[in-house]
Hints:
This protein is an alpha+beta fold. The protein has a domain at 63-164: T-fold, CATH 1.10.3980.10. The chain is 26% helix and 29% strand. It contains 7 helices and 19 strands. The strands form 5 sheets. Strands 2-3-4-8-9-12-17-18-19 form a 9-stranded antiparallel β-sheet. Strand 10 (208-214) and strand 11 form a beta hairpin. Helix 1 (48-63) packs antiparallel against helix 5, helix 5 runs antiparallel to helix 6 (275-288) and helix 6 (275-288) packs antiparallel against helix 7.
Amino acid sequence: MGVTRAPRTPVSEALPISILGEVLAKRRFRAMNTDVELTLLDWSRAALLDRVERFVHEFEGRFSRFRPDSELCALNARAGATVPVSDQMLDLLATALTMHRETNGLFEPAILPTLEAAGYDRSFERVSREGAAARFESDSRGTIAAITIDARRHTVTAPEGLRLDLGGIGKGYCVDRAAELLRDAGPALINAGGDMFGRGGGLDGHGWVIEVLDPADTARAIDSVRLYDRAIATSTTAVRNWRRGDRAMHHLIDPRTGAPAESGVCSATVIADTAARADVFAKTALLLGPHAGSRFLDDHGAHGLFVLADASVHTTDAWPSITGR
């Protein structure tokens, strides 16, 4: 969520780019309401970046909850019926169901009605920063566990009224698929607004160096790590926030309460084997708080760094800092 980055270098948008004696291929574009950057160490494979950029735009068109013609909006509109869906929708929903089970329901894509009630009812740049007090009706919430997937018939059946928001897993899933498209292109870094997958050894052969930023001051890095065939993602309350009545609101809804999370964590950054898992686990860790969240990450083979509301920093025992934290 915008609080991790590859270290800044004085480069332009032009291709090719030379850094530390290597000629890199880079592509920057806007998608999924964030900045996407693709980096290849092998300039000769730059043509693959066209394919990846097309894929990302097509993915956004399929899964955006803000585009009335998206497949996700069509699925939500037909809740209560059996709906034929694409292979990609089947796979993403199956992945979301797996993450729902692994997090004991803390990852809940069926939270969309509550998210809208909180005020996040349109693309974030259009969300009103002030408004009347929100009401949360926990008994109106459904669960993704109630959907039925028929992989053989390529259909999905959801209970009437169930509406999904796949943004909480979609960006990470998209990064993972982009990394697969670049599998044969040598070392690569895919960065979608801080959701990153680093393939191969990066510039020096030891992994891509990634900075974890202070959510209160994103010009300042608080730690650095390396990604070598691993992913990183951050969930934070510091970016997408607004007010309803006298209450500060944000987009991270706790499905146990139906209200924005109040765990004392400002941001949680997680390293995992896939970007989808890093994305979901970061949100889960933030909801659980630093201590229960750390135990959850340890149990799932992931590593985490928490920035708390008092600006203190907590990490899991195996957090792989390269700056000595």
